[in-house]
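Figure 6 in text form: structure in, sequence out.
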């Protein structure tokens, strides 16, 4: 089976897991290339990404760009990369010939589901697919707030904490209501809405690693009473992440959380 999508990213990255999980479920091969987060500044970001040589890496390089989101300092991105990925972010996916760039992890996930053999992850008709899109959009709003929150968590402001708390409650309320009405988020079948939720919400729970610092700074864990306030959401996360298709990709990512809960 040849890969129908190539993804470049730092690794591991829960945003990339979305597509790998969907690929495993729907029989789509996803090729993933990358390196540890702190090593990605030594790579040339391109359809054919590669590790750069020491002598190539200088601020005068024609590839040099200043990191804008999550990266500080210089990154090396080709013009072709930026043509395909105008926002310059990873995960960065490409069609097999490299002529089409797909960005935003939820859209990369959609691409996998669309080319998947059975298509069952993306609804049975246009209306169901659009409902799934609604969840992916709501998820992105949450995930963007979570990205900002986690990036500044050691120097959090009251405003940052309040914004994240509001985004958390808004998103989780919607997911809890959905799960009270159906077995999965968008209906009675597993879809990419569930996959996207699991990966981004698992990443958000990393706030737990900063509990001490949050408390020292006068804040607390936003998810502290999560399982009590949103029981269906937390049950869904733990049940899905325990399934082989998920756990084989996510590895031990949530082990600390499971241990802490017990
Ligand atoms: N919402 C996007 C987030 C992607 C994103 O913000 N990626 C950051 C790293 S976390 C990036 O590539 N930054 C590139 C830069 O700083 O220039 C997604 O889900 O794919």
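Output sequence:
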């Amino acid at each position: 089976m040849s890969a129908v999508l190539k993804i470049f990213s730092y690794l591991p990255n829960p945003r990339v897991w979305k597509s790998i999980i969907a690929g495993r479920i729907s029989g789509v091969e996803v090729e993933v290339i990358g390196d540890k987060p702190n090593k990605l500044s030594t790579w040339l970001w391109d359809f054919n990404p590669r590790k750069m040589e020491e002598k190539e890496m200088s601020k005068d390089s024609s590839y040099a760009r200043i990191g804008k989101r999550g990266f500080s300092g210089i990154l090396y991105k080709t013009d072709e990369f930026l043509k395909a990925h105008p926002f310059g972010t990873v995960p960065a996916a490409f069609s097999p010939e490299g002529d089409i760039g797909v960005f935003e992890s939820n859209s990369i996930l959609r691409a996998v589901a669309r080319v998947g053999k059975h298509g069952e992850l993306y609804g049975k008709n246009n209306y169901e697919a659009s409902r799934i899109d609604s969840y992916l959009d709501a998820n992105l709003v949450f995930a963007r707030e979570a990205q900002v929150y986690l990036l500044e968590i050691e120097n959090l402001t009251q405003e940052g904490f309040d914004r994240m708390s509001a985004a958390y409650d808004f998103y989780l309320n919607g997911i809890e209501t959905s799960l009270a009405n159906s077995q999965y988020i968008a209906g009675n079948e597993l879809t990419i809405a569930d996959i996207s939720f699991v990966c981004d919400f698992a990443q958000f729970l990393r706030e737990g690693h900063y509990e001490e610092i949050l408390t020292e700074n006068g804040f607390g864990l936003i998810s502290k009473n999560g399982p009590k306030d949103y029981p269906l959401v937390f049950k869904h996360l733990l049940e899905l992440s325990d399934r082989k298709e998920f756990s084989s990709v996510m590895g031990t990512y949530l082990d600390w959380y499971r241990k802490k809960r017990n």
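Caption detail: The first strand starts at residue 5 and ends at 10.
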